[in-house]
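quick one, two chains, predict together pls
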Amino acid sequence: MSEFTQVQSRTGLMVVAWLWVALPFAYGIYQLFLKVVQLFGG
Amino acid sequence: MAVGFLDRSRTIAPANWSRWLIPPAALSIHLSIGQAYAWSVFTPGLEKTLHLSGTQSALPFELAIVMLGLSAAFGGTLVERNGPRWAMFVSMVCFSTGFLVSALGAFTSQFWLIVLGYGFIGGIGLGIGYISPVSTLIKWFPDRPGMATGIAIMGFGGGALIASPWTSQMLTSFGVTPHGIGAAFLVHGLVYAVFMSLGIVLVRVPADGWKPAGWEPPIDHGNVVSAVNVSAANAIKTPQFWCLWVVLCFNVTAGIGILGKASPMITDFFKQTPTPVAASAAAGFVALLSLTNMLGRFVWSSTSDLIGRKNMYRVYLGVGALLYLVITLTTNTSKVVFVLCAMGILSFYGGGFATIPAYLKDLFGTYQVGAIHGRLLTAWSVAGVLGPLIVNWIADSQKRAGKLGPDLYTTSFYIMIGLLVVGFLANELVRPVNAKFHEPAADAVPSGSEVK
């Protein structure tokens, strides 16, 4: 595998890996935000 | 011991591997096992369908936390020896199997299977999973160990944020019946197995002698101890280990004092005021505490890379005690002050968890830091019992004495202040480890350890 192809595959892996954990995390934060709003009378 | 794909030798990173692939690997484990804090979502349904008391329905969670401490303490050396991939795999198998056994228990209405599955088997998955990425992250990020472990341990705090609404929605869809709860357990087991697999596939350890480009281990900053490596067996013989054990135990106890009773506490506090707190708003308070607990893990742990571990714990314990004092003195005069102080205390609680691996690395080096961390987590098991015990027992006895509002908690808060002061003093006693505990220089890898 050439160096350029390796760099490309690493970048793709990086994006997939971070999205893998970031998407469920974003869902959790969104749900938490909905609850916090209730504390201050939303 | 570990063979094939799981063997440590198969996880050594190639030269062009990015260290920024390691945090998501760690997060895939910690975001999963952090589900433990969302166990309470299952309890009303279990109590209703299996006719359990509140004490009984909490058993799987309590056993899981005990097993977390025990498996981290006793499995730490194995984790160091076999490497992070093996540890993550064991964690995934135990955690998922725990859910599958629990599913069987729910389908057959056998509660003991849920205790065995979620509590015992799953609890081993929690402990091994919790320590699995710690030493690997520290080795990849010797320049920012606090930030690196902060990211992973933030995941443990964030796991419940995902699991709590997800489980609720699942129970609503499947129905609160033995079959519905069993189906929810089954889905949890399968989904978490897939989700954790990313970490198993992705995790790598750096090759011997690897260091970040342009980074050199610090050599001398006055009170620096460089190139220190201490084995786990020797670490527990040092006063430094036990000072940190007290620091972690009392910092966690103080945090759990609020976290474990947050919802009834804010309701009780403001019941007799013109602005009482409704149940839905109390849920918002709990969510806010979860958020600060999670953010504190990343923010404060990263800050410790700049100001030093000892100074960071001075803040956790010293300012934490002052915040408790403010709540105790202002009682229910201001909801904003109460909420802000509680948020500060919970951010220090999370920060205390996340900063301890880097503190251990500073004192004992990277050699067996995962195993040492595992042994230190027994402090968590003790605090997990001590914190709720103090607050619940005192609140119950004050209620029996006819007291109301903030009076239910004042004594508990003074005890927490006392514990934080003791923790502060224990932190002050931390000094560089005596040379007689160091590993021979030939085995030592420079770690740039320091105690600031």
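Residues 95 and 122 of chain B are 4 Å apart (CA to CA).
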